[in-house]
Amino acid sequence: MFDKHVYSARRNQLRQKMGSGVILIPGNVESPLNYTDNTYHFRQDSTFLYLFGLDMPGLFGIIDANTGNDTIFGEDITMEDIIWIGTKPSISELAASVGVAHSSTVKALFTEVTNQKNKGVNIHFLPPYRAENKLLLQELTGIQASQLSTHASIELIKSLVSMRSAKDSLEIAEIEKACETGYQMHVTAMKMAKPGVMEHEIAGIIEGIALAHGAGTSFPIILTQNGQTLHNHDHSYKLEKGRLMITDAGAESNLHYASDFTRVVPVGGQFTQKQLEIYNIVLNANNTATSLIKPGETFLSIHLKVAEVIATGLKEIGLMKGDVQEAVANGAHALFFPHGLGHMMGLDVHDMEDYGQIHVGYDDEIRPVKQFGTAYLRFGRRLQKDFVITNEPGIYFIPALIEQWGAEKANHSFINFDQVNKYLDFGGIRLEDDILVTETGSRILGNRIPINPDEVELLQL
Q: Which domains does the chain have, with CATH numbers?
């Protein structure tokens, strides 16, 4: 944990932003894997971590903006608990460790919320994403679990987004720790990408690195030679010489701050000319994005400029044609680049997206674009100093999508389908760095994982 004063200051800031009402912040509980006592790996709710810092199941926090009081609710361990899991601090001791003066039992939680409701106090809560917390909030508030998200407090969401978007020095240091682990994961994967190696062997090794250096992976590892599938979590293939292996993976620090990187390596150690041409277009797009990132720019505008870089590169090698800006305006580039340039990152690899992407990535000024491809841009609003974002352009050859657009004659004036059809077995390339927005520009967080083609090829010697 950080020092208790960090959490007290965050709660006080939230109280000031909210002005009044009672704020419910449920922590997560254990979730059964296949029976009650055999559980999935526990991951605490990120908002609870941000405001209360306690990384254990069964806790619930209330922040009272009317009285200035905070309370942690939970149950002290029993002798049976001690036998199985050892001794633990009491709830009051845990509360005190994060600057909370009041603590009580779960039973008292229900009494407290009922009393506040009876007094007509506004009860604020976030959209729940765990089934257990949906049922708990349903019982506490009287709102059906299926309706909780529509009754979530927009005021609370916006207050927390405004607090969590810019990272302080403590948070940036934690993200850098996760980046250090991510560097080791990716370099290891790149060195292992040899013909005959099973994908799951590499995925298992790099997950072990994440566990050995922190809290594990920040999301399920994507590692595949079938990179045309954007979120391919299948690791069942044997690597073949001449294919491209894409690895999209990140780590969490012990305080659960995330990293998220993507690299591509030729299986066997050498890019073909065709692969190198596409790789260099993506690398140019990545470097261009980094050069454009600075306070005041909208990430939507940077995404669209990167789309023009990709379309220009594809036109130069004969896969696209016509006016580049017109092609991007018509969404023709999305045949090859069908996702957004990046997202915010912090305590969550997609930071705060449990609040609702529209509140995190957009605002009254910048609204989502509904066009295919750009519609998947999770974050588009104006950049500010100390935002942490990912930069992950890519080019993919998705046979089903190419076939559909070809049959529908979609964007035929901008795409040379005869040439594109020669790439149906290509796969995909995505190159991703984690970026801190600085006062005048940006910097890549952590040591940059090898990305220039000659660096990548040398790793397999």
A: 4-164 (3.40.350.10), 169-458 (3.90.230.10)
